[in-house]
From TrEMBL:
Keyword list, A-Z: Isomerase, NADP, Oxidoreductase
Entry similarity comment: Belongs to the NAD(P)-dependent epimerase/dehydratase family. Fucose synthase subfamily.
Gene designation: TSTA3
Signal peptide: none
Domain NAD-dependent epimerase/dehydratase: 8-238
Superkingdom in the source lineage: Eukaryota
Lineage: Eukaryota, Fungi, Fungi incertae sedis, Mucoromycota, Mortierellomycotina
Organism: Linnemannia gamsii
Transmembrane segment boundaries: none
EC number: 1.1.1.271
Protein name: GDP-L-fucose synthase
Length: 321
């Protein structure tokens, strides 16, 4: 980015990734705020991005030069299964409003957030960026997945028709401070922390959904935030970029549960409810393109340290910060 004044608008600024970006901008010497940059973190109080007029008013107010587009209707496996239509419609509308206004207001660059669940369910591994549209996504979250795939279609079309520099990133499953701990709609890590906490408090069994066999790559939100900022500043392509830990860092849901049990010192009954859905078995993503693009390797070891050697302090930090 040029040293001239930049206004970077972060949609979804109060969510898991938005808060992590804010933390990095305010605290990190390498990826933090640069001279001439003004960062704006949008929350739902600023207006509803499903509404075209409200979205236009936000762009009129802030006149962003750059946008990190995180705002979305998001949820874990069970939230998605219960409301595929809502996930599809809300996200289509939000994305259309944000990208349309970004074009109308001459935004220099947009980085939108997708997710590895958009990849085909039946595929070869590891999955890479060329495979986004090569077959239907997993049935559990087809609404969300299709709406997110359309961002890539729009990015290409905005570039082709108007020369816009709109791109997207595809993070693997994310965890960190300010996550959503809802018992039904949350992602697996915050959901299980909450359930384990309740089991401990109430002396009831800690029950995890599914078989525990599915595999996931988890990235820590503040590592992801650095990658978002790097993408905004350095990544030149319109085509998406997977932001993932290495393939070898993939862990099973059972390992996640075991880590949470250990970290919380839970000693009660702990089991799986196999009548509940497993979702996609795995979506192992390659970070080959990312590694090629970044000059300096990232400190991957920190990324999954929490899951490998969970400490009580980390859990406290998570749940209370
Ligand atoms: O985080 P999660 O919902 O993400 O993880 P997905 C789901 C896996 O964890 C499944 C198991 O194998 C579940 O059976 N699991 C066990 C649980 N207990 C729980 C629990 O209490 N809550 C949850 N949520 N899962 C979502 C997509 O999929 O990931 C979204 O549906 C989005 O579209 C997001 O892409 C990143 O990786 O399965």
């Amino acid at each position: 980015m040029s040293p001239a004044k930049s206004v970077i608008l972060v949609t979804g600024g109060s969510g898991l990734v938005g808060k992590a970006i804010q933390w990095v901008v305010e605290n990190d010497s390498k990826y933090g705020q640069r001279e001439g940059e003004e960062w704006v973190y949008l929350t739902s109080k600023d207006g509803n991005l499903i509404d075209p007029a409200a979205t236009k008013a936000i762009f009129e107010k802030y006149r962003p030069t750059h946008v990190i587009h995180l705002a979305a209707k998001v949820g874990g496996l069970f939230g998605n299964m219960a409301a595929n239509l809502d996930y599809f419609r809300d996200n289509l509308l939000i994305n259309d409003n944000v990208l349309h206004n970004a074009k109308e207001f001459g935004v220099k660059k947009v980085v939108s957030c997708l997710s590895t669940c958009i990849f085909p369910d039946k595929t070869t591994y590891p999955i890479d960026e060329t495979m986004v549209h090569q077959g239907p996504p997993h049935d559990s979250n087809y609404g969300y997945s299709h709406s997110k795939r359309m961002v890539d279609v729009m990015n290409r079309a905005y570039n082709q028709q108007y020369g816009c520099n709109f791109t997207s990133v595809i993070p693997t499953n994310v965890f960190g401070p300010h996550d959503n701990f809802h018992l039904v709609n949350s992602h697996v890590i915050p959901g299980l922390i909450h359930k384990c906490y309740l089991a401990q408090e109430n002396g009831t069994p800690f029950i995890m959904a599914g078989t525990g066999r599915p595999l996931r790559q988890f990235i820590y939100s503040r590592d992801l935030a650095k990658l978002f900022i790097w993408t905004l500043r350095e990544y030149k392509e319109i085509t998406p970029l997977i932001l993932s830990v290495p393939e070898e860092e993939e862990v099973s849901i059972k390992q996640v549960g075991d880590s949470i049990v250990k970290a919380m010192g839970y000693t009660g009954d702990y089991r799986f409810d196999t009548s509940k859905a497993d979702g996609q078995y795995k979506k192992t993503a390659s970070n080959k393109k990312l590694k090629k693009k970044i000059r300096k390797g990232l400190d991957w070891k920190t990324t999954l340290s929490w899951l490998r050697a969970p400490e009580k302090e980390n859990l406290g930090y998570w749940t209370h910060s």
